[in-house]
Amino acid sequence: MRAGGSASGAGAAVEISGLIKRYGRTTAVDGLTMTCGRGEVTAILGPNGAGKTSTIEICEGYRRLDAGTVRVLGLDPADASLRPRLGVMPQAGGVPPAARAGEWLRVVSRFYAHPLDPGALLDLLGLTEHARTPYRRLSGGQQQRLSLAAAVIGRPELVFLDEPTAGLDPQARHACWDVVTGLRDAGVSVVLTTHHMDEAEKLSDHVVVIDHGRVVAEGSPETLTGAERQLRFRARPGLNLDELLSALPPGSAAKESPAGHYIIEGQVGPQLLATVTAWCATEGVTAEDLSIERRTLEDVFLELTGRELR
Question: Model pTM?
């Protein structure tokens, strides 16, 4: 079972129950309960300030919880025996500014019994030509990739990746995706946070959406997005959707979000398509960019957490 499940989490990579973390009067994590399976990629999604990073840092042993229980590979996160079994990629930092990329990876590799080859990791992540460059002179994307390499070099059983592709260009993002996919294929458990919904949808076996420090939804990407298709089109803002719905088959739904962008949900097929285009014609409206699509994880995320900026 996952977040809020009633079954035992035996054999889980991470088990969190009733987790609470406060900073002064602010409750960052408010009774969060979730489970991350072994050998799976679990994506934790949420708006800024939802409690994602606090939760990850507690699991990594870097912060203390105020209430609840957390078990990582069956142990308390503060247990020192966990250190060689975990890989950690923080949001930023963690590397001495003067350390050269290649030298840093070689230093980190010496802490593990059977590390991956530093040169091969540099090559995989496109850092070979920067092996002698000090960390402070690397670009933000190059620093991110070096941190990812350091997180996985020890062949960990469980990897925590906090915003692993933040600030990366498309090529670098795909290189990081390849690393995450390779970890899962090797049986490594991965817990990641990301603001990229396409990344979570592509990489994860399980998604947990949190808001205000609580789980608001969980499941596989397919479960969360559902099998329903949507009809989308653009037209002038303010169409009378009640009139449109009266012409559509029972069980249909229509919304305008944002202005001038329309989404029709229901039994999307030839009849519904013909009805919508015919109604638009009677209203003197041209339906532009008309397409039939599956609901995305971004759609689900915005429905659950709202569209307002935070």
Answer: 0.80
